[in-house]
Structures are given as structure tokens and as C-alpha cells.
Amino acid sequence: MQRNFKRIISLLLVLILCFSLFEIGAVIGEESNPLLVAYTSVEELTEDPTAGEKLKEMGIVKGYADGELKENKEITEGELLCLISRTIKKINGTSYNKLVKEVNGFDRFVNSVYNWLKVTKENIIKGYYRFLALFPTYEVLPGIRKDNWLFEDALYLKTTGFHFPEDFSPNRKISEYEMYQLLIDGLNLGEKNETIVFDPEISEKDRLKVILITHGIYETSPDELNFAKRNEAFNLILNVVQK
Predict the structure, then answer these.
(1) What is the separation, in whole angstroms, between the first and last Cα of the chain?
(2) Highest mean pLDDT among 41-45, 72-76, 112-116, 173-177
(3) Gap between the Cα atoms of 122 and 186, Å rounded
């Protein structure tokens, strides 16, 4: 009888010990398991959006049909001009140009009239090209008609007075130097530096560097051999838009 009693007591002690260890293990697993904590913290981390993703939110970048931005892919001349076109729309839609410094109400009136005339002129030009676009055979550029993906953006660039390169080809890959040059020409950044006086002996490449530095978008010397990447163009465009 006494032996059985001892067995029962021993069994109870074993059961109590087992339950205690189980509870301790559960608490450790929930509160201080380093793997669990690390896993939770990784889940909470979020990556900063890329320049391409930011531009997509602004409507400047649309991406490919599958939604991918393919930022490491080489950019084509047509793709870059689409970016330039949408950037101009973005800037023009939020800009207010001042002909004179506003000190009083008359100054504000003069600037309002100036902006009204500017918008009216732009609308007349847009109307002209929109009228031409009604004709199904109209080509905004050689081979670029209404059914072409570049048509709308090329048409808009024409209304801004943009001069397309004579050797323009939508699907041609462009060099880093050509990318910078197209951005300068398309966004009229060079015209906004009339105070810069260049030495007649300075090369076109060095002139480009000076303009890029002035606008704070010069990072590395534009290479005439390396093809430009989409992410490089996205970074430059975002820099211009945010200024």
C-alpha cells in the first residue's frame, strides 16, 4: 500500500514537472525566441520607393503592360521623349510664371494677364495640332500615327516647340550623353541659364556639364559609349520635378 502511494506521488510530481516545463517553453517561445522576434521585425520593414515608383505615382511613368518598370533596362529614345512630355505636362500644370516681381496688386494683375496670354497661345497651338490629328493619315513624326504608342506624347511635344532630332528613332537605344542632351533640350533647361556666358572655345560636352551642374542634376560625366538605363532617366526626371 505504501509502495503504491509512493508511485502515485512520484507520477504526480513527474506530471507537474512536465506541465511546468511546457508552460515555461511556451512563454519563452512567445516572448524571447530570437528567431521569432527577428522574423517579426523583418515583416515590419518596408523598402523606400524607387525614383521610378515615385514617378509612377505622379503619372509620369506608366511602366510596361505587365506593370513592371524594368528600371535596369536600357532606355530608348522614344521612351525618354515620353518621360519628357509627361514631365513638361506636370511642370506646366503646377507652375505660375512671373513676368515682374510681385510687390503690389498691379504686379499680380500684370502676371495674371501674362499667364493668361501664355496659356491662350499654348491652347491655340494645341488646337492647331489637334485639328491635324483628326486626319487618319496625319503623322506627327515619320511613321508615327494615331495607333502608335508614341503619338500622344510626340504630339504634345510638338505643341511645346520641341525640335526632334533629325535621326530620331523610337526604339533606338541612346547613350548617357544623348539622354542628358535630350533632357536639356526637352525641358528647356539650357534656355533658363541665359546669364551663363560660355567661352567660345568650350566644347559642347563641357557646356552640357555646366548646365547640369547649375541645375543640380550632374552626377557623373555623361558617357558617349554606355547606353543609358531607365533608372538613370527616372532619377534625373525626379530631381527636376522636385526642384
Answers:
(1) 93
(2) 72-76
(3) 16
Separation of alpha carbons 225 and 204, rounded Å: 16
Instruction: Tell me which DSSP letter residue 141 carries.
Output: B
Q: The C-alpha cell of 30 is what?
A: 512567445
C-beta separation of 114 from 99 below 8 A:
yes
- Give the CA count within 13 Å in the CB-facing half-sphere of 133: 21
**Residue 105, SS3 per DSSP:** helix
Q: How far is CA 48 from each of CA 45, 52, 164, 240, rounded to the nearest angstrom?
A: 10, 11, 35, 19
Give SS3 for 199.
coil
Q: Could you give phi then psi for residue 144, rounded to 5 degrees?
A: -105, 100
229 three-class SS: strand
Q: What is the pLDDT of residues 85-102, one digit of tens each?
A: 999 888 876 667 777 888
- Look-up of cell digits 499654348: 122
Task: Specify the amino acid at residue 24.
Answer: I
Rg (CA), the chain: 32
Say how far apart CA 71 and CA 54 lie, in whole Å. 12
The CA distance from 183 to 85, in Å, is 10
pLDDT in tens, 150-164: 999 999 888 888 888
